[in-house]
Specification:
By secondary structure, the chain is mainly beta. It contains no helices and 11 strands.
């Protein structure tokens, strides 16, 4: 069983920055593949960025955030982060932390989400 809790969302002006955090518990965090996802009003949840586990730390980004967002992880703290720079109104969404254990079938876990609003 894995529990994920996001924090760091809020209201920011276009061009501003936010740093989201996700804290995991209840699992061997180091083996988890982790990611950030977002869901804007009226739209489906979409992948933002991912980072692989077991020390590899390979990262992938959606084209829409490439060059602006950075995903990172701290295995000792059992956390992942999303540094968001040059924010745009289209980045407004609920941001979710997600993860899966590659050793367990059907083991994907979601946090409750944190609201990010980009508006002037």
């Amino acid at each position: 069983q894995v529990q994920l809790v996001e924090s760091g969302g809020g209201l920011v002006q276009p061009g501003g920055s936010l740093r989201l955090s996700c804290t995991a518990s209840g699992s061997n965090f180091r083996v988890l593949n982790m990611g950030w996802y977002r869901q804007a009003p009226g739209k489906q949840r979409a992948l933002v960025a991912t980072t692989t586990g077991s020390g590899s730390g390979r990262t992938r980004y959606a084209d829409s955030v490439q060059g602006r967002f950075t995903i990172s992880r701290d295995d000792d703290k059992k956390m992942i982060f999303l540094q968001m720079n040059s924010l745009k109104p289209d980045d407004t969404a609920v941001y979710y932390c997600g993860g899966d254990n590659p050793w367990t079938t059907g083991s994907f876990y979601w946090g409750q989400g944190t609201q990010v609003t980009v508006s002037s």
